[in-house]
Amino acid sequence: MKHLFRLLITFVSGVSALYFVFWVGGAILLALHLPLWLSTVMSLAAAAAVSRYVWIHTATFEPGLISSMVLGAFGTGGVGFAGGFFGPIIFMPGANQGPLLGIFITGPLGFILGAVGGAIYWLVWG
Predict the structure, then answer these.
(1) Which end of the chain has less neighbouring CB within 10 Å, N or C?
(2) For the chain, what are the domain ranges?
(3) How far apart, in whole angstroms, are the C-alpha atoms of residue 70 and residue 32?
(4) How far apart are CA 95 and CA 20, in angstroms?
(5) 61 in helix, strand or coil?
């Protein structure tokens, strides 16, 4: 069960980082008149870094304050982003601004709430 949880949380965090950096980074690159292929490179690098961090830190989880906060933030932020990004695409395919919910509201809110939840977890169990 632990390996399934590790795989799931790593996958969700990596995909969420990939999409978030691709769309937000692409918008920034477009505004700066830089080549758009950089957005793909940056998003793949960010997804690999986040996935590696989550995979390593869920293997031997020693509850430190910062590691609990970062792991909670990546996990909860990834789930919030995925729900807000893909939910409107699935349930309201005609809404052209649906994925913005995940990019600007549920992703960042999940990230912040996950960090607070990780800190509370560490205070209670650490």
Answers:
(1) N
(2) 2-125
(3) 30
(4) 19
(5) coil
In the chain, DSSP assigns E strands to: none
Residue 14 near residue 54 (C-beta atoms within 8 A): yes
- Rounded-to-integer distance, Cα 7 and Cα 51, Å: 10
Per-residue pLDDT of the chain (126 residues; tens, 9 = 90+): 478 878 888 998 899 899 889 988 888 888 898 898 999 999 999 999 999 998 988 887 666 888 889 888 988 998 899 889 888 888 888 877 878 888 899 999 999 999 999 999 889 987
d(CA 102, CA 116): 19
Are 21 and 47 in contact by the 8 Å Cβ rule? The answer is yes
List the structure tokens of 74.
Answer: 């990546």
Q: Map tokens 């918008």 to a residue.
A: 27
